[in-house]
Amino acid sequence: xxxxxxxxxxxxxxxxxxxxxxxxxxxxxxxxxxxxxxxxxxxxxxxxxxxxxxxxxxxxxxxxxxxxxxxxxxxxxxxxxxxxxxxxxxxxxxxxxxxxxxxxxxxxxxxxxxxxxxxxxxxxxxxxxxxxxxxxxxxxxxxxxxxxxxxxxxxxxxxxxxxxxxxxxxxxxxxxxxxxxxxxxxxxxxxxxxxxxxxxxxxxxxxxxxxxxx
Length: 214
Fold this sequence. Notes:
This protein has helices at 26-39, 83-90, 118-125, 130-138, 149-162, and strands at 47-53, 59-65, 68-69, 74-79, 93-100, 105-115, 174-188, 196-203, 206-211. 25% of the residues lie in helices and 33% in strands.
């Protein structure tokens, strides 16, 4: 049966988010929600939308995977020559968005981005499955491709070359980024679209918490 997307909606009833419920530190609050998403067995709870802006102020976004949360920020990995990598080079700010639909929650995070050390990137790269290493090495990410066969041939040739070693060298153009947040927003769906939105803004060396209208 065909459905009108204008009529699609959910009435959120899973919970609420009050100032008295949250931690004063947004990093700790994020970890509480992430742990709850993991325990709920939501598929890929570390999946996040990464939004970047080009030199001509044109935004773009895609889904990537969060790989680590530190006291400094959020770490993810990608090809530095990709569209997102080039955009972060010219405009070193980005936004993240986690959607945990089953819990009726979202988290938005904004901040500056910078590359992490090559040593740390290599440590993570070689912890990945061998074929994932080969995928990163064989892909010219975001470049135009005449067909799929060239990529598959590159992958097969690299697999033959490094099969005996069981690992592949990390490409020079691949590695991690750290997003250092200065803004968090925690969103909890509520009935009648009266959603809860609590934001954290880093000002004057501390985090300030405030409520936003839905």
